[in-house]
Amino acid sequence: MESIDLLVLRTARDWLRAGERVVLVTVARTWGSSPRPVGSMMALRNDGRVVGSVSGGCIEDDLIQRYTTANGAAGLPQQLPERVRYGVSADEAHRFGLPCGGTLELVMEFMPAVEPLEDLLARLEAGQLVRRQLDLGTGQVSLENTATPEQFSFDGQSMSSTLGPGYRMLLIGAGALAEYLAVMAQFNGFQVTLCDPRPQHLEGWSVPGVERIRAMPDDVVRAFAADVRSCIIALTHDPRLDDLALLEALQRPAFYIGAIGSRRNSQERRRRLIEHFGETEQSLRRLRGPIGLYIGSKTPPEIAVSVMAEVLAAKNAVALPDELSISQAKARDDVQRCA
C-alpha cells in the first residue's frame, strides 16, 4: 500500500494525462483543532471524483459542490492558485464538521502542469527526497532534491513541502508477530521487507505484498540502505541473528531501531554489544528495547499494536510520556507488588 501523498500525486497526474480537469488541494494553514495536518493533499476531478482528504468529509463535499459538474456547477476553472478558508465563524465550523474553534486554509492548484508532476513522481519513485515549492502569484512549481526533510511552510505567497520516498520497514525474523506487524505497517503506508535466513520460518509466511529475503540479517540491513524514513525491527529472539543486524542498523539514519525482548533480555543485549562489540551507552541510545507501548499486551496481535503505535509516534516526532514506557511501567508494577 503506497503513501497517500504518492497516491494523490499519481492519480492527479493520470487524470491530467487523460485530459481531465483537475485541482490539487493542499491544507496550507490551520488554527485551533483541525482534522488533517498541514501539507495534507487531495486531488479533485471535474466530475466530483476525489482522492485523498483535507478534512473529515464535509469540506470535500463543499468543494465538490462549488467546483465540479457533479452538482451542476460550472466546473473547475483554469486560473492561478487561490486560497480558500473554512471555519472562520462558529456557524461555518459547525456546518463543515470542524472541531470547536478549528479553521483551515486551503491552496487550490487548478489544472497543475503535468510535466512538474511527472518529474516529481520520477524523483520520488527513485527514492529521492524532494522540496516542492509553489509560487501562488505565478502558479510556477520548482523542485529541488534535498538531504534533510523540512517542515511544511506557507507565507501566503509561497508554499513549500518536502516529499520523499515512502516509509519503509525492515522486519528481521518471520513469525506471528512479524505477520501482524507487517499488515499494520502496510495499512499505514509502509513498504515492508522481511528477512530471515531460516527457510522453515519463511515457508510459513502468509502476508502478501511483503518482500521476503532469505539471507543473514546484517547483510540485508547493509543492502537495505536505511534512510530517515526507514525503521528496522529485530524479532527473532536470537542474538546470533539480531545483534549484528542491530549493529549495522545503528550506523544508519533510520528513525526507529528496536528489538523484541523482555527487560532482562534487552539489558543482556546492551551488555553484549558493549562488552563484545565496543559499543557504549551513548552509541546505543537509539536502540529501543523492550519495544512497544505499555498497554498490557500479551498476544502477538496486541504486541504488534503496541509496537506499531511506538513506530508511528517516532515517525511523527511525538514525545511519549514515561507512563507508556514498558520498562518504567513494569518497574512500577514490581514496586507495587513488593509493597
Describe what is shown at a glance.
This is Xanthine dehydrogenase accessory factor. With 339 residues, the protein is of the alpha/beta class. The protein is built from eleven helices and 15 strands.
The count of β-strands is 15
Q: Sheet with the most strands?
A: 6 strands, parallel
- Portion in beta strands: 15-25%
Ends apart, CA distance between termini: 49 Å
Classify the secondary structure makeup into a structural class. Answer: alpha/beta
CATH architecture of the largest domain: 3-Layer(aba) Sandwich
Q: SSE order in H/E notation?
A: HEEEHEHEHEEEEEHEHEHEHEHEHH
In percent, how helical is the residue content?
25-40%
- What would the principal axes of the Cα set say about the shape? elongated
DSSP helical segment count: 11
Strand order of the largest sheet: 12-11-10-13-14-15
InterPro entries: MoCofactor_Util/Proc, XdhC_CoxI, XdhC_Rossmann_dom
Organism: Pseudomonas kuykendallii
Pfam family, one: XdhC_C
Protein name: Xanthine dehydrogenase accessory factor
What does this 3D model show about the protein?
It comes from Pseudomonas kuykendallii. This is Xanthine dehydrogenase accessory factor. Helix 1 runs antiparallel to helix 4. The chain is α/β, with parallel strands linked by helices and 339 residues long. The mean pLDDT is 89. The protein has 2 domains: 160 residues, no CATH class; 171 residues, Rossmann fold, CATH 3.40.50.720.
